[in-house]
Amino acid sequence: MAEIEAVEVTRSYRMDGVSVDALRGVSLTIEEGDYAAIIGPSGSGKSTLMHLLGCLDRPTTGTLLVGGRDVGTLDDSELAELRNQTIGFVFQSFQLLARTTALDNVALPLVYRGVRRAERRKRAAEALDAVNLGHRIGHKPTQMSGGEQQRVAIARALVGEPSVLLADEPTGNLDTVNGDEVMGILERLNKERGVAVVLVTHEADIAARARRIIRVRDGLIEAVAEAPEPS
Amino acid sequence: MRITESFRVAFDALRANRLRSLLTMLGVVIGVAAVVVLVAIGGGAKQLVTSEVEGLGSNIVFVVPGKFQIGTTPAVSRLQLSDADYLNRVLGRPDAVAVDLTSAEDLRAGTNTYYASVQGTTANVVDVFDRPLAEGRYVSKADIATARRVIVLGPDAAAALFPDTDPIGRQVSMSGVEFRVIGLFQAKGGAFGVSPDTEVHIPVTAAQRLFGMDNISGFAVKADTPGDVDAVGAKLVDALKQKYQGDEFTAVSQTEILGTIGKILSMLTLVLAAIAGISLLVGGVGVSNIMLVSVRERTKEIGLRKALGARQRDVLSQFLLEAVMLTSIGGVIGIGLGIGASAILSAFTPLPAVLAWWSIVLAFGVSVAVGVFFGVMPARRAGRLDPVVALRTE
């Protein structure tokens, strides 16, 4: 079963009374263990697409299935639950709670799943280990470098064992070395754990690392390029 | 989300903005403390006045001319001193009826002066009102028969007129007429400027001459038991109505006075509590305001929490709990402050303060309610934030 399946999905907004068609009929499938990059210029609709894939939003028309559930028919609470269960977010600006330790930041998704504190901490520690930050669980984001912060964010995305990691410009705020490391971790998780990774980026060399490149323009998918299987 | 987790998150948020939380709390603290203290003062006043009136003796019934109500001016009296004997006969008890004729006069002894309520009385007043003497003797029947110019002083009057000497045997003059001091009352204490300690008593016959009146103000009788008070009162009123056809008389018992005073003071207490309640309300508006600011400041955090799976009600309860914690912590501090202030008030000022447990419970309940009431709007706003919009906010 595909993790995410979009069929002729559109999304329009009303801004100051004017209707804006951000997506005008997009169909795509994210398979289990997929590694895809969504690229496109700003205003192309790639952010809107990412919000839809991440169940932060519902399509105006068309069908969007995430984890087998029709996003368009779910209410806010069900969407929240679906996000919590199936999607892990990695944001460009990390989005960590500043006054909270790495461990508690990572454990946050489990809070909304009703997991007990001791169990949460154990699993958060494991997730931090997986991104090589096992030694910094008690540190706060302000005491960490950008690369470390993004690794904490990846651990947070990972802790709930989602089937899809959605990474929105994950290297956008990082230098090349840290960016490489973050990408390496995402790829390792993709390979070792079989979690599907969807990158949203405008950096061609980052996108080029994915197995598939989905090019979005003017609210439509312009092209899908399959990378040759590495031998 | 588990409730313990919600508490932790709310508490952390309050701690993160310590100064702001404290200042916001202050409104509630002041409001709650004001409620507790003002209700304590009101209650204390009531207790004091009640014990004062009770001190008169619970068996006493007053008979006065006219339709008497607290707050109205007394009617002109046609009652005569001889009516006391008539009422004694009606009751079948000699010396049951005490007589009163009161006027305010300037008293003078040497260079000292004192303005007092001078009561013309009969010899049985000390028994009816239970006024033991500290020194000397009270007005006697012989004093009344001969309108002898003798005077019994309350401790306040004695202290003002004779600060350094023993007053017994000394002269006090009123309107140029000399009275000899024959006795001193024991101190009884009082409040609000009404105290039996300020009274001075002279024979009623001497008072009639001094005031230039031939009538008297009213009678007081001590019934055998509190249960007899109403019957005795009715008997006296009937007897007087028979004698003075067409005139009205009223019997007033201590219970009635207590009831009226109690009503007035309960009203006063309520008004005080309501005024304090307004400040609590203002404190609540402050909480609402700060919560709105907090929601705006943390829009991004809300967006993130929602992206990670927080439902609308998770976010709502987080902010609501924050507001309620703010006001209930403020409430507890305010109660502590109120109790402390009440204790200090009763220790160092003549104002009595009696803590009312209901005011403490009410104040805490209201502060929690204020948190819910004023927190719900900002919390709903937080809960309804669209995660896409919230995450985009800078």
From TrEMBL, chain A:
> SUPFAM superfamilies, alphabetically?
P-loop containing nucleoside triphosphate hydrolases
The Gene Ontology terms for molecular function here are: ATP binding
The UniProt keyword set, sorted, is: ATP-binding, Nucleotide-binding, Transport
Q: Which domain of life is it from?
A: Bacteria
Q: Where is the ABC transporter domain?
A: 4-231
Q: Which PROSITE patterns match?
A: ABC_TRANSPORTER_1, ABC_TRANSPORTER_2
The coiled-coil segments of this chain are none
Task: Quote the protein name from its UniProt record.
Answer: ABC transporter ATP-binding protein
Origin organism is Catenulispora pinistramenti
TrEMBL record, chain B:
User: According to the lineage, what is the superkingdom?
Assistant: Bacteria
Predominant location category: membrane
- Residues in MacB-like periplasmic core domain copies: 21-237
Q: Where is the ABC3 transporter permease C-terminal domain?
A: 274-387
Q: What InterPro entries does the record point to?
A: ABC3_permease_C (IPR003838), MacB_PCD (IPR025857), Macrolide_Exporter_MacB (IPR050250)
Segments traversing the membrane: 21-41, 264-294, 315-348, 354-376
- Keywords on record: Cell membrane, Membrane, Transmembrane, Transmembrane helix
Localization terms from the record: Cell membrane
Topology within the bilayer? Multi-pass membrane protein
Protein family (similarity comment): Belongs to the ABC-4 integral membrane protein family.
Name recorded for this polypeptide: ABC transporter permease
Organism listed in the record? Catenulispora pinistramenti
